[in-house]
Each structure stands twice: as structure tokens, then as C-alpha cells.
């Protein structure tokens, strides 16, 4: 994924952009730690509510300071609730964005 994005950036900017293996490893470590923290927070929110199951409200609590992410999650939940994208039935997930640009929706106010 990192290689694909750097290739795209190179083409778009007209310069040679690469990611070293060290950078890629650091990025993987950063993402892993972030996801581990989110998972721990989700567990703690559920436990605080005296539940053993994590529910969407827990995820909204974790994302409460990121309005763009919260809106994406709400949209995706509504999509799933309509029955169009139950991931357990092998249906495809909805497009998160009309743009092919990574994080394009997150930069909007």
C-alpha cells in the first residue's frame, strides 16, 4: 500500500518519491500501536457500560474528537443497517469516498 501511494505521488508530482523499508516499518508500527490503543479504548468503553460486547456507540466515543471520521462511521453504519452491506454475507463495502485520493474526505471542514 505504501508503495502504491508513493508511486501515485511520484506520478502526480512529477518527482521521484520513494519510501524506505525503515520508513515503511515505522509506519506499520505506528498504525499497529494506534489500532491497539483504539481496541483497548473500545474494550474500556464497553466495560464501563457493563457490557462484554463492543457496539457502534463505543466506536463513536473513540472517534468523538474527529468529526470527519465520525461522519464516515455514521454513514457506514447507516449503510449496514439498510442491509446493503452486511460484511458477514460477503457483500462489498460501500465506497467511502467518490475520490481516489487517500484521506480526501478527511481534509474537508
TrEMBL record:
UniProt entry tagged with the keyword DNA damage: yes
Annotated SUPFAM superfamilies: Histone-fold
Region feature (Disordered): 82-109
InterPro entries (UniProt xref): CENP-S/Mhf1 (IPR029003), Histone-fold (IPR009072)
One annotated Gene Ontology cellular component of this protein: FANCM-MHF complex
A biological-process GO annotation: replication fork processing
Molecular-function GO term, any one: protein heterodimerization activity
Comp. bias (Polar residues): 86-96
Signal peptide: none
PANTHER family: CENTROMERE PROTEIN S, CORTISTATIN
UniProt-recorded name of the protein: MHF histone-fold complex subunit 1
Source species: Ogataea philodendri
Amino acid at each position: 500500500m505504501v508503495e502504491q501511494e508513493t508511486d501515485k505521488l511520484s506520478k502526480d508530482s512529477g518527482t521521484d518519491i520513494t519510501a524506505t523499508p525503515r520508513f515503511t516499518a515505522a509506519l506499520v508500527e505506528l498504525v499497529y500501536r494506534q489500532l491497539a490503543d483504539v481496541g483497548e479504548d473500545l474494550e474500556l468503553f464497553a466495560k464501563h457500560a457493563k457490557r462484554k460486547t463492543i457496539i457502534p456507540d463505543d466506536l463513536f466515543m473513540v472517534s468523538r474528537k474527529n468529526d470527519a471520521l465520525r461522519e464516515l462511521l455514521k454513514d457506514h453504519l447507516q449503510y449496514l443497517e439498510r442491509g446493503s452491506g452486511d460484511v458477514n454475507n460477503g457483500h462489498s463495502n460501500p465506497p467511502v469516498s467518490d475520490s481516489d485520493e487517500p484521506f480526501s474526505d478527511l481534509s474537508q471542514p
